[in-house]
């Protein structure tokens, strides 16, 4: 914590457009990125899968590691970000395709949840925003439709490692209109997500199994980190 300056924290995404004062911010939230960095650095991660909107957090972790290494000697690895090169790296809101899809969005119709019911999925896709053009084709000038096509193409091709996901091959689906497209997406999402939803509720009802997984994970994490943690303490004279 002593290697972190407040100005480094204040430029991170969650505070970028946020007035930091005693009335609006607590130190737990303000310094949380330090804890995120610790999770990366303590496990000596080389590569961190992340989204474009979280890239600054990886830069922050690298900066923290560099500062520590410069002061106390070579200790931490400098992690690299791994970002999926695809339009699907950040899906757009179903209700406002100018912003990313987020489960924290106040509009519950704006995102697809992994445990949404078939009825909820159907309603969300039906209510998704497109445009007034009836023909279906892939274009950046049609962000709502482009977002839906990206979703469909991913779920149709995610099991094929050799499939290109940079631009959907719309013509092979031969959509009659947008209603046809939305019906296809709905059917596809229900087929792909229902096993996930069913497994989720199955595990949720097995508290003994979940408790065992948590305990085993904690033991494994501690065994991997305790020696390195003690080494870090010795570096700073503790």
TrEMBL record:
GO biological process: mitochondrial tryptophanyl-tRNA aminoacylation
Family listed: Belongs to the class-I aminoacyl-tRNA synthetase family.
InterPro entries membership: aa-tRNA-synth_Ic, Rossmann-like_a/b/a_fold, Trp-tRNA-ligase, Trp-tRNA_synthetase
Enzyme class: ligase
Gene3D superfamilies named among the record's database cross-references: HUPs, Tyrosyl-Transfer RNA Synthetase
GO cellular component: mitochondrial matrix
Source organism of this protein record: Intoshia linei
Classification of source organism: Eukaryota, Metazoa, Spiralia, Lophotrochozoa, Mesozoa
Keyword ATP-binding among record annotations: yes
Keywords associated with the record: Aminoacyl-tRNA synthetase, ATP-binding, Ligase, Nucleotide-binding, Protein biosynthesis
Domain of life: Eukaryota
Record's protein name: tryptophan--tRNA ligase
One MF annotation (Gene Ontology) recorded for this entry: ATP binding
Keyword Nucleotide-binding tagged: yes
Pfam families recorded: tRNA-synt_1b
Entry's EC annotation: 6.1.1.2
